[in-house]
Amino acid sequence: MNIGKVSNRVEGVSPFYVMDIMARAKALEETGRQIVHMEVGEPDFSTPKPILEAAKAFLDIGNVHYTKAQGLPALRDKIAEYYRQEYNVTVSAERIFITPGASGALTVALASLLDEGDEVLTADPGYPCNSNLIRLFGAKAKAVGVGEAEGFQLTGERILQSWGGSTRGVMIASPSNPTGTMVDREQLSDIVTAVHEQDGFLISDEIYHGLVYQQRAISALEITDDVFVLNSFSKFFGMTGWRIGWLIVPEYAVSAATRLMQNLYIAAPTHSQYAALAAFNDDTRKILLQRRDEFEQRRDALYDGLKALGFVMEDKPQGAFYIYADCSAFTDDGYAFALELLDKGGVATTPGKDFGQNQPEKYLRFAYTTTMESIELGLERIKAFLKSYKKGD
Length: 393
Ligand SMILES: Cc1ncc(COP(=O)(O)O)c(C=O)c1O
Description:
Layout: H1 8-11, H2 18-30, E1 36-37, H3 49-61, H4 73-87, E2 96-99, H5 101-113, E3 119-124, H6 129-136, E4 140-145, H7 156-162, E5 167-173, H8 185-197, E6 201-205, E7 228-232, E8 245-248, H9 254-264, H10 270-276, H11 282-309, E9 322-326, H12 334-345, E10 347-348, E11 350-351, E12 363-367, H13 372-388
Parallel strand pairs: 1-10, 3-4, 3-5, 5-6, 6-7
Antiparallel strand pairs: 2-8, 7-8, 9-12, 11-12
Bound molecules: pyridoxal-5'-phosphate (PLP).
């Protein structure tokens, strides 16, 4: 009898440990405590006004039907134009799919590529959903431990060393969640060369592009057309709740991605697609660039503050809104430390345990998705907490 039993595949899907932290933070807030939230992986800014106005104008007409599975042609054209302007690459709109967030893009990319028993190389620490999604398609993530010395990113060399008989491809993310670190053009070229040498696929998660400070993020499309690139309106564009992103596939996968979009989603949310048409306007861009500058100031304040308190970060992260800080000077158990920092210090963070098996107990992820005042208050609280905290407590 299988009544009451969920699939073995789902049994192996890991939970987000940060949910424990969030639930605990909420419980503390209900008792009247005020918590500084540095665990949240989404911008605190609201959706830019021009995008809201475009959505309202569309909703006023009330004609909210499905779009084509690939998405609105006008939005796909805008994204193609964005790639011309931002990256100086030509991508035909036929290769662009509008998806329910980067999450939908990841699902379509992995479903297009994986067969039972395949293996995919992923960086550890990395975005936790990747290995769970890979698992849902009957394949397996092979986590490759990456450390501070290599900027927490895979390299061509590590890829070739780790490639096994069942390996089919590689997933990278630059800037990375949880580390905010990036690959430069040379590293990215090496990665592409290594993957192609093995006749494998490359999935490049570029969701944090736009939130990059003092430099330019390189798209894998600048190096090759034989890549699956995903991005989203969630982060730089401030549209997490609208559930809209995009996937660019190589020519050979256009038919597969079309059929998967039809079957998995029918289409991405229509009102979100109409809203996103305003995401590339000049007035929206002005707002987004101001926000990016604000994120940069927050990063600098948090980085300097954490360093002064004794957290170790080799380099300042170049993008996203995260700092992955080594807290081993204070604790051998980052998860217990995160819980205690919340309980006694009133600061919520994400434990390294959420991002893999590679020495997670040494790390905490701090998100600067909160105001400068709140970051300053958080740093003061951490300082006070550390005074009374003893290793092994
Ligand atoms: C690296 C990375 N990829 C993909 C996603 C999924 O984002 P969304 O589905 O909101 O676009 C996230 C969300 O935090 C992420 O950090």
